[in-house]
User: What shape does this take?
Amino acid sequence: MKLTKNVIISRRGYQPLSSPILLKGGIVIDPLLKLNEQKDVVIENGYISQLGQVDSKNFKGEVVDCRKKIISPGWLDMHVHLREPGYEGKETIATGSLAAANGGFTGVCCMPNTLPPIDTQEIIQYIKDRSKGSLVNVHPVAAITKKREGKELAEILELIEQGAVAVSDDGSPVMSAEIMRRALEYSKMVDVPVIGHEEDINMTTGGDMNEGFVSTCQGLNGMPPVAEEIMIARDIMLAEYTGGRFHVAHISTAKSVELVRQAKSKGIKVTCEVTPHHFTLTDEAVRTFDTNTKMNPPLRTESDRLALCEGLKDGTIDAIASDHAPHSFEEKEAEYIYAPFGVIGLETSMGLALTQLYHHKFLTLEQLIYKYAVRPYQILNLNCPEIKMGTMANLTIFSPEESWQVNPSKFLSKSSNTPFVKWKLKGKPFAVINNNQIFFSVL
Amino acid sequence: MLLHSKHLLGLDGIPQKDILTILDTAKSFREVLDRPIKRLPTLQGKTVVNLFYEPSTRTRISFELAEKRLSADIVSFSTAASSVKKGETLIDTVKNIEAMKIDMVVVRHSSPGAPHLLARVLNSHVINAGDGGHEHPTQALLDMFTIRQKLGSLQGKTVALVGDISHSRVAMSNIYGLTKVGARVLVCGPSTLIPREIEKLGIEVYYNIDEIIPQVDVLNILRLQLERQREALFPSLREYHNYFGITRERLESATKPILIMHPGPMNRGIEISSDVADSEHSVILEQVTNGVAIRMAVLYLLAGGRSETH
Assistant: This one.
C-alpha cells in the first residue's frame, strides 16, 4: 500500500501501517530520554524496531522523508471539548479526534460538560467505545460533582476505575469551598488531579470579556482578572490543607501565574496549563467585535500575555492545552453578548506554540515538546510515550521551520470558530503515528 | 463621499473633520425645522429601515421624523425580544429585509457591536442608534451641536458628564466626540459607576460634584439606570440624590452660567431636580429639537448628499 498525503483519504481517516515504515532523516527529540539527534526510525507492527542510521535503499517497506522534521513523542492535548454525547452538531468524538491528529496530537483529554455530563460509568464506557480503534487516544475527564452542579461529589472512585484520568467541572467553577475541599481530599485516594475552572461567578456573571480599558471602550461587561485569581488562591490553600492535587485549567492572568509560582516553591501540589490563544492574543482583539475573540477565561492584557510566556519559560506553567471548544457557525455569527464562549484550537495549537514560543525564543524545542508530550502525561499519571527500541510507536512529526497560512477549510474539526483565520504561522504538523496507524496532516 | 465612512457606527475612530462636517450640515437643517414647510426632497426614492431591538421612544421618533423631513420611504420595526429568541439570527432578519431593496438601516440594539455586525454583512448604510453600553453617536453629535449653538464653540470648553458613566453609550460617544474637537471632559459619579481605566481616554475623573461645579461650562446629566441598585452598585436612591443629584442649591457655587443638559428620559428628583431641569439654563428640549437636525444631516451625508438641499 502506498501511504499518501491526500485530503480526501485523510478525511476518511487514519491509514493502517500494514507494512514496515522508515522515517528517514528526521531529528529525534525525546526530552525524557535526553535525546536530540538525527536518527532514522523503523516501525514494524506498530513498534519501534530500529533506531539509528538505516539505509533506505535496502529497506523493504515504505520510506517517509523526514528531513527538516522533528520526531517527538506523541503530543497530548489535556483540555479538549469533544461535545459528544449531546452536542454532535458542534463536534463528535470521531471528528474531534481527526482534528487532533491533523493538529499533531496522538491523545486528547475530553472534558465532561457533555449532555449528559461525564458523571457516570456508562458515559465513560460510551466514550471508550466510540473512540475504539482510533489513532488518537481519548482520555475522559470525569465530573467532580454530580451533573456538574457543584453540590454533591460524583462517584469519583468508580469513574477513575472505569478509565477517567482526572476530575473537573470544567465550564463551571466549584463555587463551594467545602465541596472543593472534599474533592481534593477524596481524589487523593486515587492520586488524580482535580482540574479547576477558576472563576468566581458572582463577579463574572453577565460579563463578555476581560474587565479593563478595552471593556470600558467597547461598552461590554467585564470579567475581572481577580475573579480567577481569588479562586486559584483559595484552591491552592485547599490543596495545601488537604494534600490533594490541584491543576489549574487555562490559566490566564499574571497574578494567577505568580500565585502558582509561589505555591510550587512551597511544595504545594499544584500544576497548570495555558492555551495558545491566551499566550498569543490580548483583549485588544475584541475591538473588532469578532465573536471568535469571546472565550472564558477571556483574553487578557499584554502584561498578562507576557507573564504567561514567562511562566512557560521558567516552568511555572507545566503544559499547553488548547481548550478546543467547538461551536456552530450560526451560534457564533451572532451579536457579541449572545455568542457562546469558546474557540477551537486543536489544529492551530502547534503552529501558534512554535511561532510564539519557539521562534520568539521563549522555549527551546525540547522545552516545548516537554509541555506537550511529557508534562500532560505526568500530571495525569499516564505513561509517557518514549522513542526507544521495542516500544509502541506513539509519535508526533512536525516541521518547525515550515511557514503556512491558517485556512479553516482544511480543518477536520466539525466547527471553524477560530480567531486565527489567515494567520501566517511558522511550524507545522506533518504526521502522527500511534496504535499502528499513521495520519498525514492536511493543514 | 462626504464622510470618510459608508456607515456611522460610532465617534471612536472617525476623523474630526467628519464630526465638524456633520455639525455644520446640521446647522442648515436646523433652520429648515423652523420653516412652515419642513419637508425637503433630499432622500426621495431612498428607503430607510429603522430596526429597534430595544425599547426607545425619542430616538426612534427623532429618526423617523428626520427621515420623513427628507422625503425618504421608511419602515420601522420594533421588538423587545432579540431575534435569537425567535429562532432567527439577527443577520438572517436583516438580510431578508435588505433583499426587499433598501438603502439604509438605523439600528438600536442591546449588544455592543450589533451595528458593526450588520455593517459587515449588508450593502446598505448602517447608522448606530445605540448599541448596548458602547456608543450612541447621534446623541453625542446633538449634544455637541447644542453646546456649539449656545456657547459658540466646543474648543476649550469644559464639559462634565455626571452620574452613571459605567456602560453609558451616551457618555462614551460624548467622550470620543468632545475630546476630538478639543473640549475638556470631566466625568463625575459614584466610583462604582465609573468604568475602569476610563481616564486613559484623556479625561478627568471626579467623585465630588461640588468640586466640578465651579469649573464647568456644561453639565450633561446622565440618566441613572435604576436597576443598578439591585446590582449593589450604589446603596440607595436617597444617598445617590444627596451626593450626586443636581439641585439648584448645589449650582449656587457656580462662577458662571452652566448649560444644563440631559439625554433623557429624566428621573426627576433623582439625578436632576425639577427646578434645574426647567430652569432658564436648561437646554434639554432644545437638545431634542436639534436631534432631528443632526439625524437629517447624518442621513443626508451618508446618502452621498445632493445639491438640491442647499
User: Anything to note?
Assistant: DSSP finds 15 helices and 21 strands in chain A. Chain A has two domains: 7-71+387-403+425-440, 75-379.
